[in-house]
User: Which sequence fits this backbone?
């Protein structure tokens, strides 16, 4: 199938592996697979690269010299945007709202390595999205004044263009599942800015795949916003299917990127059965949700489960998470003479 819009080729290692997790499957009495979109080949990898294949070509075609994007201080999207901007010789500015930390950690640390500039707006207590928008507008105006041609990428790369990256992933995954004779499995995906979920949804629907899709919200979730996003995509691309979404909102816990013992337990479970690292903000929380759904028998015995690994590993090293993990594991270090 021809892509709907032009794209860059940033995933020359695609298809990303679809792996069977034998240890976890045995332990949980479900057939568990993982789609390794963390193993994409730039900037440490992650789901945002698929979106950037479509977004960055738009930026290049618009003769952009500077990419401006927004996100939380630990945004993986910002890190990957910085990496791809570097690859194409563009400036990258990541605008974020928060308080400066004593120590640069996780993604903030890596953003600098990729040569990005991070504009950290001090949180004044108002709605974060409003603050982000204002700060981004100001940064863009300053850049334009300097003569830069700015291309703006919204939070998480989740617009109708970025969505196309996960429509591609849906086709890729469907073909792999068929090849491995996994039909009728349910794909589980963390839901943040929604582009990954909605792209997969539209991709699977448009090829009438027999894979089902469930999103696990990792932050407060607004169904109306998802519907509006879908309506926009439907208008632009003329989809002939409806939006019939399944997003679980019962596993958000304390809030966006908050450290929680159940998330760390899920990370340790994956690491100690399969040797695969999840992240504390998205994939760890999603897997904690899936483990709860198994315990609650919402996912029945023998069912086929495909976890989408969206990346995010640097989050393990973000100061608040690292501190807690250190406490959990430090007894495993045995010092001898
Ligand atoms: C951004 C991100 C997600 C969520 O994807 P959205 O398209 O924003 O919903 C999931 N996992 C990781 C690691 C991410 O960086």
Assistant:
């Amino acid at each position: 199938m021809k892509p709907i819009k032009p794209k860059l080729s940033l995933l020359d290692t695609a298809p990303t592996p679809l792996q069977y997790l034998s240890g976890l499957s045995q332990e949980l009495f479900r057939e568990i697979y993982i789609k390794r979109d963390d193993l994409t080949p730039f900037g440490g990898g992650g789901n945002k690269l698929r979106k950037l294949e479509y977004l960055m070509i738009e930026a290049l075609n618009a003769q952009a010299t500077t990419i401006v994007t927004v996100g939380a201080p630990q945004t993986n999207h910002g890190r990957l945007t910085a990496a791809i901007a570097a690859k194409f010789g563009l400036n990258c500015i990541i605008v974020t709202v928060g308080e400066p930390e004593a120590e640069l950690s996780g993604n903030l640390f890596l953003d600098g390595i990729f040569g990005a500039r991070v504009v950290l707006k001090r949180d004044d207590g108002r709605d974060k999205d409003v603050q982000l928008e204002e700060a981004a507008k100001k940064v863009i105006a300053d850049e334009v004044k300097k003569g830069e041609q700015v291309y703006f990428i919204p939070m998480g790369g989740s617009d109708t263009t970025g969505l196309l990256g996960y429509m591609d992933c849906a086709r890729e995954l469907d073909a792999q599942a068929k090849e491995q004779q996994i039909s009728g499995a349910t794909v589980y995906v963390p839901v943040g800015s929604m582009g990954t979920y909605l792209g997969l949804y539209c991709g699977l629907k448009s090829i009438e795949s027999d894979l089902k899709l469930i999103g696990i919200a990792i932050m407060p979730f607004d169904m109306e916003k998802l519907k509006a996003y879908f309506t926009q995509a439907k208008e632009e691309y003329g989809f002939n299917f409806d939006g019939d979404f399944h997003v679980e909102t019962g596993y958000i816990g304390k809030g966006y990127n908050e450290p929680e013992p159940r998330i760390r337990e899920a990370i340790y479970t994956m690491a100690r059965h399969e040797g695969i690292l999840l992240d504390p903000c998205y994939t760890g929380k999603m897997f904690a949700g899936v483990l709860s759904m198994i315990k609650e028998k919402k996912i029945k015995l023998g069912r086929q489960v495909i976890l989408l690994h969206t990346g995010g590993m640097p989050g393990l090293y973000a100061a608040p998470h690292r501190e807690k993990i250190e406490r959990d594991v430090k007894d495993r270090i045995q010092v001898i003479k």
